[in-house]
Every structure is written in C-alpha cells, then in structure tokens.
Amino acid sequence: MRKKKWSLLMTLIILSMIFNMVLTFADSSGPIKIGSTYYPTLNAALAAAVDGDTIVLLQDVTEIVVYTVLPNKNLRIDGQGHTIYGGTNPDFSCALRLSGEGTLILKDITLKGQNLVMTKPAYMEMIGLSVLGKVNVFSEGLSRWDWP
Predict the structure, then answer these.
(1) 112 with 141: CB under 8 angstroms?
(2) How would you class 49 by CB atoms within 10 Å of its CB: exposed for 0-12, middle for 13-18, buried for 19 or more?
(3) Which comes out higher in pLDDT, residue 115 or 84?
(4) Three-class SS of 66-77
(5) Which of 77, 73, 2, 74 has its CA nearest to residue 39?
(6) What tens digit of pLDDT does each residue of 45-98 get?
(7) Given Cys at both, which of 47, 67, 87, 129 links 93, Cβ 3.0 to 4.6 Å?
(8) Are the C-beta atoms of 75 and 107 separated by less than 8 Å?
(9) Do residues 117 and 79 share a domain?
(10) The pTM is what?
(11) 38 and 94 together in one domain
C-alpha cells in the first residue's frame, strides 16, 4: 500500500512538472516581445506597451500597423534587422500608420509597404531605417516626401 501511494505521489509530481513546462513554453513564443512577455502581433504589443518600453521584433512581421502614439508615451521598436511588411496586398498596403502626440523610435528596421503615414504631431526618430519600394511619408500639416 505504501508503495502505491509513493508511486501515485511521484506520478502527480511528474505530471505537475510537465504541465508547468507546457505553460512556460506556451507563454514564451511569439514574433514580438516586450521584456519577457511575447505578443502574437505588433499591434497587440503596441497596445500593451507602457511609457519607456522597447518592443523587440524577433522575426519579420506581416500586418498593417495602425497605432496612436499617446501623449507623454515614449516607445521604441527595435527591429533587429527585421522587416514590417504592410499587409499581404503588394499593390495597396501600409506598413506603418501613426498618429498622436507621443514619441516612437524605430531602430534597425525595414518598412516594406506602400505608405508610411504620420498624422498629427507624432514625433518619430528613425535609426537604421530602410524603406523598400515606393513609400510615401505623410505628415499632416507639414510636407510630403516621396521615395521612388
């Protein structure tokens, strides 16, 4: 009887350890992360980010990113050499659409889409930014730049 209880206890401990490992690995995957938290999309990471966060791309991202940079919110996206492809339609897509009054710093990132759109007085600093294809940068109330 004592041997059965011991075996049952060991089985429960092992199952508990396996369950915890599954939960740990399930939470530690995704193409984007902030600190030790992973996100399935860049839009989700931007929504969850707080002032001063650095969002790190772990792989290329294919989505149309629409984000309002909140006042007094300063964020950084570290692309680590990856690309944001603005959706799946090569003829009409927007890699990044920004508005708001906060600060967004893009570092070591490539934007590939039809447009990079900035409206309102959003501040953006670009470090190591590559733009592929015909990309227009619009800034409401300022000027417009076109790259062929």
Answers:
(1) no
(2) buried
(3) 84
(4) EEEECCCCEEEE
(5) 77
(6) 988 999 999 999 999 988 877 777 776 788 888 989 888 877 655 555 566 766
(7) 87
(8) no
(9) yes
(10) 0.63
(11) yes
Residue where the block lists tokens 């369950």:
19
Tell me whether residue 60 is exposed, middle or buried, using C-beta atoms within 10 angstroms of its C-beta: 0 to 12, 13 to 18, 19 or more. Answer: middle
What's the mean per-residue pLDDT of the chain? 70
Beta pairing partners, 75: 104
**Cα 23 to Cα 79: distance, rounded to the nearest angstrom:** 27
The answer on 47 and 2 residing in a single domain is no
Contacts of 1 (CB under 8 A, 6+ apart): none
Q: Facing residues of 125 across strands?
A: 105
Sheet holding 115-118, edge to edge: 65-69, 94-100, 115-118, 135-139, 144-147
Query: Which pLDDT value is given to residue 57?
Result: 94
The verdict on 4 and 75 lying in the same domain is: no
Look at the chain and report how many structural domains it folds into: 2
126 shares a domain with 53: yes
